[in-house]
Design a protein that fits this description.
transmembrane helix
Length: 309
């Protein structure tokens, strides 16, 4: 009886398809790109500086912070470590050996979150997602995360199960993120009365630049401001519901969510956060994550591999 159950479970898992596709690979590359841009376009003095309640920087004294990549050398070598980290991120973006680079990716993301002074929250999202991606990357035997996987043909049931479990947990985590975001906003009067976006757009740190502010002033200073305010609330709750939606609805929500986050990037400067959320949305809302995306150009180093008979 137990053997029959195991066989039927294995058959179901194999029938579901492989999670090791270039779709999840694309999400990994986008996550790495976000961190890469943060490190590339910010100097050491910007990334490492005192914050409220923390005089030591990078903060390495307690707990898990001590394993940060930025804590393994004295502060005089931070620039060198930054360069090494950028090179590692380029390798991760390329898609080489997910089984090796998966843990490295999380280590870098964890280090950036805990050791640097960043503002837009993208580093937190990336640290969580790269941690949740560890099971699928450790089970991924491909040389490049862009190439076709042959786990089905090899009956790698445990590896495939690990991969799908990782994707399922990420989807639940992203859904909870949007649910929490929408519910938390209901506790602020500005979101209830529809004026919250006005205050964000005029914030001295995250707000619009003077030129754009002047252009959209007819909207920000009229009743129309309630549309993006309440629209954000509604869309974030609908994105939580996307966890249970059908394929067609998920595709619509995906487009709407990408649009929302790109507006955040353009208007509020939340670039690394928006890029990270694009990666999260790819795993969360693309229903056919088990199907290869057909790129128009096939790289030679990916096309020479012989199929398993």
């Amino acid at each position: 009886m137990s053997k029959k159950l195991v066989n039927s479970t294995g058959h179901y898992i194999l029938k579901k398809g492989t999670p090791f596709t270039n779709v999840y690979g694309l999400a990994r590359s986008i996550l790495a790109l976000s961190t890469f841009l943060t490190l590339l376009f910010n100097d050491i003095d910007t990334l490492f500086k005192p914050a409220a309640g923390i005089r030591e920087y990078p903060y390495c004294s307690t707990g898990m912070n001590s394993i940060s990549i930025f804590c393994i050398v004295p502060n005089t070598y931070l620039e060198a470590i930054k360069i090494v980290t950028i090179i590692l991120l380029l390798i991760i973006i390329s898609g080489w050996r997910p089984k090796i680079t998966g843990l490295i990716h999380w280590w870098i993301a964890f280090s950036v979150q805990n050791s640097t002074t960043t503002l837009d929250g993208g580093d937190q999202v990336i640290a969580v997602l790269t941690f949740l991606l560890i099971p699928i990357t450790l089970a991924d035997e491909r040389k490049w995360h862009w190439e076709r996987d042959y786990s089905i043909e090899k009956n790698r049931v445990v590896a495939i199960s690990s991969g799908w479990a990782s994707i399922l947990v990420i989807r639940i985590q992203v859904a909870i993120l949007y649910l929490h975001s929408s519910i938390a906003k209901l506790g602020a009067d500005e979101w209830i009365n529809g004026t919250a976006v006005y205050y964000f757009l005029n914030d001295p740190m995250f707000g619009l630049n003077p030129l754009v502010s002047t252009i959209i002033q007819p909207i920000t200073k009229s009743w129309l401001i309630v549309l993006p305010t309440w629209g954000t609330l509604i869309l974030q709750f609908l994105l939580f519901c996307g966890l249970f939606a059908n394929t067609k609805t998920k595709k619509i929500l995906f487009v709407l969510a990408i649009t929302m986050h790109e507006l955040f990037a353009l208007m509020l400067g939340l670039v690394s956060f928006s890029i990270a959320m694009i990666a999260a949305l790819i795993i969360f809302l693309l229903p056919n994550v088990h199907q290869e995306y057909k790129f128009n150009y096939q790289f030679s180093f990916l096309s020479n591999r012989k199929e398993v008979k």
